[in-house]
Amino acid sequence: MKKIITVCTLLLFGLWTSAQSFWEDLDPGSISTTVEKKAYLTATAHRALSLDYTAMKKHLQKAPFEFTAEAKSAPLQLSIPLPDGSNEVFGIYEISIMEPGLAAAFPMIKTYAGASLNDPSERIRLETGALGFHATVFGEKVAVVGPMTTLPGELYASYFIKSTPNDVGKSCGTTEIENEEALDGTAEDKEFLFTNKSLQAPVDLRTYRLAVATTSEYSNLYGNTPASVLSAVTSVLNQTNAIYEIDHAIRLVLIANTTETFFFAADGDDGYTNGNAGVMLGENPAILFGAYGNDGFDVGHVFGSTNGGGTIGIARLASVCGTNKASGASNLQTFVPEDFYITVTHELGHQFSAQHGFNFCDNENENPPTAYQPGGGSTIMCYTSCGSNNVQDYNDSYFHINAMERIKDFSNNSLSGGSCAEVIATSNTTPETSIPIAGGFKIPISTPFELTGEATDAEGDNMTYTWEEYDLGPMSPLGSPIGTAPLFRSYPPTESLTRVFPNINNLVANVSHVNEVLPTISRPLTFRFTARDNNAEAGGYSYSEIAFESTEAAGPFLVSLPNTGSESWEVGKYMEVAWDVANTDGSQVNCQMVNIRLSTDGGFNYPVMLLENTPNDGSAFVVVPDAVSDQARVRVEAADNIFFDISNNNFSIVPPTAPGFTLVSSPELGTVCVPDVFEVQLQTSSLLGFTDMISFSVGNLPDGAVATFDPAQVAPGGTSTLSIDFSGAVEDGGASIAILAEANGAANSERSVELNIVNSDFSALQLTAPAGASGTSTLPDYGWTGLPNGLSYNIEIASDPDFANVIDAASGLASPNYPAGVTLDENTIYYWHVSVSNECGTGSFSDAAAFKTVSQSCNSFTNNTTQPISGSGLPEILSVINLPTGGEISDVNVKNIKGDHDAFGDVEFHLVGPDATSVLLMQEQPCGSTNPFNVGFDDESPFTDIPCPPTDGTSYRPQEALGAFNGKDAAGDWTLQLNIVNTIGAGGSFDGWTIEVCGGSSALDPFLVTNDTLAVPPNDSRLIYSNKLVVSDDDNAPDQLKFTILKNTDFGFVSKNGVQLGAGDSFTMQDVYSSQMEYTNTEPTAIADHFTFYVEDGNSGFFGTPSFNIVIDEDAEPSAVEGQVEEQGILVYPNPASDRLTIQLKDGNRGISKASLFNAQGQLVLSRQPGFIFGKIQIEVGGLPAGMYLLQLTSPEGVFAKKVVIE
Length: 1207
Prior knowledge:
Elements: H1 2-10, E1 23-25, H2 33-38, E2 47-51, H3 53-60, H4 69-73, E3 76-81, E4 87-95, H5 100-105, E5 110-116, E6 123-129, E7 132-138, E8 142-147, E9 155-160, E10 170-172, E11 202-214, H6 216-221, H7 226-247, E12 250-254, H8 277-292, E13 299-306, E14 310-315, E15 328-333, H9 340-351, H10 401-411, E16 422-429, E17 432-434, E18 442-444, E19 449-452, E20 454-456, E21 464-469, E22 498-501, H11 504-508, E23 523-532, E24 541-551, E25 558-561, E26 568-570, E27 574-580, E28 593-599, E29 608-615, E30 619-623, E31 629-638, E32 644-646, E33 651-654, E34 660-666, E35 669-674, E36 677-687, E37 694-699, E38 706-710, E39 713-714, E40 719-725, E41 733-742, E42 749-759, E43 767-769, E44 781-784, E45 792-798, E46 806-813, E47 817-819, E48 829-838, E49 841-842, E50 849-852, E51 856-863, E52 867-869, E53 876-883, E54 891-901, E55 907-912, E56 918-922, E57 932-937, E58 955-956, E59 972-980, E60 988-1000, E61 1007-1011, E62 1014-1016, E63 1021-1023, E64 1029-1032, E65 1042-1047, E66 1052-1056, E67 1059-1061, E68 1066-1068, H12 1069-1073, ...
Helix pairs in contact: 7-9
């Protein structure tokens, strides 16, 4: 493009050297005064051109037709002169916006569409006809190329719409009539049909037949012939369709006999009050219906003209397809005709149900439910005649997302605006959008921020994006938002996924603008990210929404160094960046880490990351990169939020002044999870050709940590990795590691790495309650020991030891306790365990604990006597239930308090016991006028919030605990006391209640007698004797004491009579006495093992959950073995014995340290520890009952057993 401009300058406005030489630049000074007097061009700046119109028309005849393969793959190339002096090549195809009959009657009128071959987001619409050539380029700026005079000729101009005069005084009528007959509810309150806006969906093109009438005054502006006026109308409609097809997938098509309602001065009175849109609105239906009938069109409009301001357009809301479909009027302002299509697009927007989108203009035409844009707004459905509330002097050619949603809802509704549309299926689908961060966070006040979205398109279309605020609030002067009023204007779609708030140009220039005001108070903020696919067949769009808040508790967040512009950084130096944290590290914003970036283009882009994830403490040092610039700025941004600030002024980065090297370490801080290895990357570079080797060393290592460099030396430009092994570290907490780089002939460089050393050993966790308990509440509070290295806890409660049936669970608990969320069954064993989480992850669950819930019997008693509740005074109702027999109370519940009252919020319940103890059950419920009630109260209910009114008998936790009655005697009078606490004339009746009183059972629990550590050699087995494990019970025999393994062993297994057991399996105390239980080690490297268990008896007794500990020891004693007594040279006689049993050692050098005698039930009945005895031992057995016994002898060679009989 620059080459073309240069050639044009050298040729002094000569012909272009492109293949299509239709245009010639002209010297504006050469255009005659006579021509200028005829000109209607009002642009303050334009590019003067001449056009070979005949050649242009001939070239355009080669354009393929829309929806064809050629239109997509081989559109006609056409170069268009732009106002800035450049020329853009577009791919062009012909489109049809006239019904066939109309197109056949006026074949000289052609319409085209296309997109830039260089930038597909630049779209074009053009027409040829009786008024010559006309083109509109829709991009970041809207450009027009059209005739310079009212009559067609060779003189053309290229100009930007925004360079036309401000349409001062223009407004849309204040008498808009809301016609919501076809909608399911009003436009303000109805739910949109399309609730999911971010997912892929088919896009259909909806076409509507448009009837247009023109006043004679309008026709006079455009040649006073049907062909010339139709050319003007077609041009306006082509521009309008360019917007509707992209934003709404809607095309308006001129009906076949459109010119029947084109009026000319020669026709006499046309029936319109030209220039008065409000009156024209009422005149148009009769004229259009008279000409075309009710079924002859889908939407109607009249074009007029005016030489002044005032109401230039008006339309009935949501009138397309309905009885008011002809209710639309637009007046062209003769002193600024170029943007007439904006007026028409706006008024048709009303007819398709869109409403005004501006917050405050004239205090007359605002629509608060859709006022999402500050001041007068800037999009199609906004005003640009708002004086001090003007956002800008022209409307941008696109719709705000709210208007898009309203039009989509209306046009897709088969009961309203979709009922008359012709639906054309296309191959297009909507894009998919997302926002990579979740909402709900807070930002500091008076601080810039940026938002970034993500989008994909299945068809690969060239997407454009908008970020628009979606907040409503009080009408507010532009720049002075009140409360939740919108702060930020809308900007036209661009190809950038990111928007900076405020505009980056103003931010860099330190300029504030009333169009974009940063929040200065605590308030909610909502934004919508919209992706348009700009598909040529029918445009699709999707959006995603994010909501967050600003908070006065933080901000403004400000960069303070470098900031003045006087700073100069030298490449390779270690320089400070400073900022005002402004409480952004506090609980409200909670920004703990920031990134520091560098710009070298004056603050517009920040591609260089100087420091990533550094603490938000107000200061950090960075290594100056080799990025020499006199336009440097820094940006400090939240690492996990959207806010940031930049240097106010440019500063300099200058070359190094002495040879040396730079050192960059990354990361500069981190968390180490013991026993991990933490790595730091060290990157060096040379300054002024320095080449000496660089050596590394490290200091301040924590005890037990080991550091290595790979390699230990590098040449400048090389990298090294510092690895710090924390497997031997013994302490956790903070550590500042010092890294030193040295080289001969250069200054040393030192960097520090701040580490948080975290130990993930959670073995100290102990479950405290309920652990091994019986008689536990059915709504227990779970507790365990807190750990200093734990950040949160996770709990599971199950009905089985394998946790296959988890009935209650919670995660992320901040404290080491959990109030039950589920009411448990009575007289049932439950299991629970806890895991710990910290920065390093979540540990495995602890060994489980078991407990047994309370076993109790309950009886219910009812009084259903009805008593009236007076509507005057403060009545008190007393209902008594007498319990004739007593007993100690373990639980009291109140059920089915029934009745009705006109003001349930004024009802208060108390329960009074026989000893006058009173418990407040309920008071001051936030209920209005309610009637029937049926409610209960139970300390162990999981429900706390009582509905208004409670009618289904559900029990809730009382305001005061019914546990106040526990331990008391149940006999006597129990009184339900109902009080009315406020008199408003409401009355009712009390219809009865039920009391449930429970008493606990008195089962005797088993208890632990012996639990000693068992020693087992590696890869070997040992029996578990009663000298290691004994549980007893006052009312149960050994064979009724059932052990259940809760947590199994880790390095071996427990077996019963040779059968391996696992978690959930059981054995009895008798099995221990009978030498049936054995542990086998399968992991010889282990040093210890254990299993946990609980014990049940035959009478609902329970005991748990101790650990049976095992040590793996090569020197462990062997188990006693039946039948080896004689083999070891030990004689036992007489057998049977009646009075005395003798143990004789054949070898006088051997000894016995202990002799034990067990009965057939496994109970120890006699034990002798005579010291280390050689020779012979005698044991008196005369007092023992006759029967079979087991004699167990302990010697240095092991433990041996023999069966003996006592007579």
